[in-house]
Design brief:
The protein is an alpha+beta fold. The protein has helices at 6-36, 56-69, 99-108, 132-145, 171-200, 204-213, 334-337; strands spanning 37-45, 48-53, 75-80, 85-92, 110-121, 124-129, 155-162, 227-230, 233-235, 238-240, 243-246, 252-254, 259-266, 272-277, 282-289, 291-292, 299-300, 305-308, 319-326, 329-331. It binds zinc ion (ZN).
C-alpha cells in the first residue's frame, strides 16, 4: 500500500485550488470579452481597409455568385481584378459590419463584359444592338432597301463583348442611318454612269447623218463563224464598250472595212489590240488577239486578215472584242454592222 503523507495531500489540494481559480478567471475574462466584443473579419481591397464583415464565407459565396451569374441583361463574363483580403479581428459589439457595402465595393472592382451584336457594313461597324434578333431585323431592313442598288454592300453581324451596354433601341432609325449613305453612293454611281455614257457615246442622230455622209463605209464582220457572247451596254462587270465574238484561239480576224492600221500592240485590259483608222473619223478596235498579222501603217482592205483570236488581257475566254469609235467616242457597233 502506498502511503501518502498528509503534507503531500495538502500540497495537492492547494495546487488544485490554484488551477481552478485560474480556469474560472479565464472563463470570466472570455465571458467578459464575448459580452462586449465580437469576432469579425476586416476586409482589405488593394491593401486598403474597407470595413468589417460578419462572415467571410458568406461574402465569398456572394462574390462567387455575382462572378458566375452577373446582374442584369447581356452579361457575358465578369473579371475580378483584385480579390479581397481578410483578417480575423475582435471588435467591440457596437461596431457595425458592412456586408452589403463591401460586396458592392468588390463589384465595383470588377470589369463587366456585355455580350452585344454589331452590324458591320463594308467592314465598318455601323450599329450595336443587344440581341441577335434585333441585329437580324436591321439587316433585313437594309437588305430590302438596297435590293435594287447597283453597288452591293456587305452587311455582316458579329458577336462582341464590350464594357458598356451601350446599344441602339430604335431599330428603324439605325437601319435608316445605314441605308442613307448607301443610297447616296448608289445614286452617285447611277449619275456618274449617265454622264459617262452621255459624254462618251455618239447619239444615234449623229450616227445616221454620218452614215449618209460616209455612204461608202460598209462595215463587215470580224469572223466568218462565231458566237456573240456579249453585246454593247451595261453589264454586271461594268460598261461593255463593244461586242464580243467568240471563236477558238487562232481563228483569223478580218478588217471590218478599208483603212490604215494605227495600233498593233499590248494595251492593258485589251491585251494585244489592233486599231484600224477608216475614213470620216471612224476607227475599229480588235482586242484580246493571240497574234498580229499586220503592222502599224499597213493599208488594209475590208476582209483582210489582220490578226488571230486569242484571250489576252482581261478576257475570260477566246474571243475578239470589237469596237467602232467615232472621233474617239464609242457607240453600239451593232448600229453599223447590219445583220449578225
Ligand atoms: Zn468585250
Amino acid at each position: 500500500m502506498v502511503r501518502v503523507s498528509s503534507k503531500a495531500k495538502l500540497k495537492a489540494g492547494v495546487a488544485g485550488k490554484v488551477v481552478l481559480t485560474i480556469l474560472i478567471g479565464i472563463i470570466a475574462v472570455v465571458a467578459l470579452v464575448l459580452a462586449s466584443y465580437k469576432p469579425v473579419y476586416s476586409v482589405l481591397i488593394n491593401g486598403e481597409f474597407k470595413g468589417y464583415v460578419s462572415s467571410k464565407n458568406n461574402l465569398q459565396s456572394q462574390i462567387e455568385t455575382y462572378l458566375r451569374e452577373g446582374e442584369g441583361d447581356n452579361v457575358g463574363y465578369i473579371l475580378l481584378n483584385t480579390r479581397p483580403e481578410y483578417e480575423f479581428s475582435l471588435v467591440k459589439k457596437d461596431i457595425v459590419t458592412k456586408d452589403e457595402e463591401i460586396l458592392q465595393l468588390v463589384k465595383n472592382e470588377c470589369d463587366v463584359y456585355y455580350r452585344v451584336y454589331a452590324i458591320n457594313v463594308n467592314d465598318e461597324e455601323k450599329a450595336v444592338v443587344d440581341s441577335l434578333d434585333a441585329a437580324q431585323q436591321i439587316v433585313d431592313k437594309v437588305n430590302s432597301a438596297t435590293k435594287k442598288f447597283t453597288k452591293k454592300a456587305s452587311v455582316v453581324v458579329s458577336e462582341k463583348y464590350q464594357n458598356e451596354l451601350d446599344v441602339v433601341d430604335d431599330l428603324e432609325l439605325a437601319a435608316n442611318d445605314i441605308i442613307k449613305p448607301l443610297k447616296a453612293e448608289n445614286d452617285e454611281l447611277v449619275t456618274k454612269y449617265q454622264t459617262y455614257t452621255v459624254q462618251k457615246t455618239v447619239p444615234q442622230s449623229v450616227l445616221d447623218s454620218l452614215r449618209e455622209m460616209e455612204s461608202d463605209l460598209n462595215f463587215g464582220l470580224p469572223l466568218t463563224s462565231y458566237v456573240v457572247t456579249s453585246r454593247f451596254g451595261w453589264r454586271r462587270m461594268g460598261y461593255h464598250t463593244g461586242i464580243d465574238f467568240a471563236a477558238s484561239i487562232g481563228t483569223p480576224i478580218h478588217a471590218l472595212e478599208d483603212g490604215v492600221v494605227t495600233c498593233a500592240e499590248w494595251k492593258g485590259n485589251y491585251g494585244y489590240l489592233i486599231k484600224v483608222q477608216h475614213t470620216g473619223g471612224f476607227e475599229t478596235y480588235y482586242a484580246h488577239c493571240s497574234r498580229f498579222a499586220c503592222n502599224v501603217g499597213d493599208e488594209v482592205k475590208k476582209g483582210d486578215v489582220i490578226g488571230y483570236v486569242g484571250s489576252t488581257g482581261n478576257s475570260t475566254g477566246p474571243h475578239v472584242h470589237v469596237e467602232i469609235r467615232y472621233d474617239g467616242s464609242y457607240f453600239d457597233p451593232a448600229t453599223m454592222l447590219g445583220e449578225f
